[in-house]
Amino acid sequence: MKMINVTATDIRLGKRKDPRRCPVFRAIRRSIGGYIYVGNNAVQIRSHPSNVATVVALPMRVDAAITRYDRTGKMKPFSFKLAINTKSKTTL
Predict the structure, then answer these.
(1) Which residues of the chain have pLDDT under 70?
(2) How high is the pLDDT of residue 86?
(3) Per the domain annotation, does 30 fall within a domain?
(4) Which domain holds residue 46?
């Protein structure tokens, strides 16, 4: 498990309805690195663009936060655990 912290900066710099610029994307990318794609219910993680992706389900409350952010532009800082085993940003 990896703790992901979505910060006020992630939210301020995020962009609605953009999987590569949303606050959750920014937080995951900062925490684990690699090539990330965030959908509403899962995140795809690759160590290189041509590698096979690891798909990890997002917790339901994160899915709800993304949906709410996309609709309203509102999100508060929060943390969640991502079910992926990583030792550092470079081990993906």
Answers:
(1) 85-92
(2) 55
(3) yes
(4) 2-81
Rounded to 5°, angle at Cα 52 from 64 and 6: 30
Count of structural domains, the chain: 1
- pLDDT above 90: percentage of residues in the chain: 78
- Examine residue 91 and state whether it is found in any structural domain, yes or no: no
- Sequential DSSP letters for 6-50: E-HHHHHH--TT-TTTSHHHHHHHHHH-SEEEE-SSEEEEESSTT
User: Cα separation of 26 and 7, whole Å?
Assistant: 9
In a domain, 16, yes or no: yes
Residue 14 has which token pair?
């995020």
Work out the number of other CB atoms within 10 angstroms of the CB of residue 58. Answer: 22
Note the residue count of the chain: 92
Average pLDDT, the chain: 90
